[in-house]
Amino acid sequence: MTGRRLRALLSRRMLRAYHKAMGGRVISFEGLKLYVPRGVFNPLLTGSTLMLARTMHPEGRVIDIGTGTGVLALLAARLPEVEIAVGYDESKLPVATARLNARINKLEGKTVFTHSWRRAMSYAPFDSALINPPYLPLEPRDPLDNLWCGGRDLRVVRSILIMASQALRKRGRIWITCSTLSPWRTLAFQAEKIGILLRLCSRLSLIPDTIIVLCGESIGIVKGS
Q1: What is the pTM of this model?
Q2: Which domain holds residue 169?
Q3: What is the DSSP secondary structure assignment for residue 222, as one 8-state letter?
Q4: Which candidate, 32, 9, 53, 62, places its Cα nearest to that of 204?
Q5: At 186, which CATH number?
Q6: 135: which DSSP letter?
Q7: How many domains does the chain have?
Q8: 155-167 and 184-193 helices cross at what angle (nearest 10)?
Q9: Does residue 141 lie within any of the structural domains?
């Protein structure tokens, strides 16, 4: 077993313990009040959400893929240069949670939360995409693991990038988190094949890994990909 895999397993163990202990409460995050039920990703428990929140500069129409509590869409909606922020999640609990958090923070007028990709795409093309995906290169063992495990081959992250390539206009901006525990350079290379150019924007060394934010833009679907 490699050191990288051992650190990924340690990260999963820590995240599971934190989420089981801290579910079902209201938290403060970057000026927002957020209700976080059990089974929804808590943005306080890793540095990835905070890094993304402080790195991103969305504008126009914004899509937040894998919205969870809705935190990234809500932060975007507070910006005057953002027209509307659409949060998508395939599960109903995060969507219900995000809608509640929009009401708590009085941002219902600039946000839409849905578990229907078809409805989310009705607002396309988007100018900006925000993604804090499950980037640990591990197979999920249960629904809780889906919050941070993207498959050993990161197939979940790749599928999210494909969705972003469909949603973004040409030259639309994208920000996505990853980790040095994952083959992020390979991921960036694969993203280019579907028309998204990514580069390293920021990094934060933590225990047991280093979190990174990749940013870039859509160049349109590459023919033959």
Answers
A1: 0.93
A2: 3-216
A3: P
A4: 53
A5: 3.40.50.150
A6: -
A7: 1
A8: 40
A9: yes
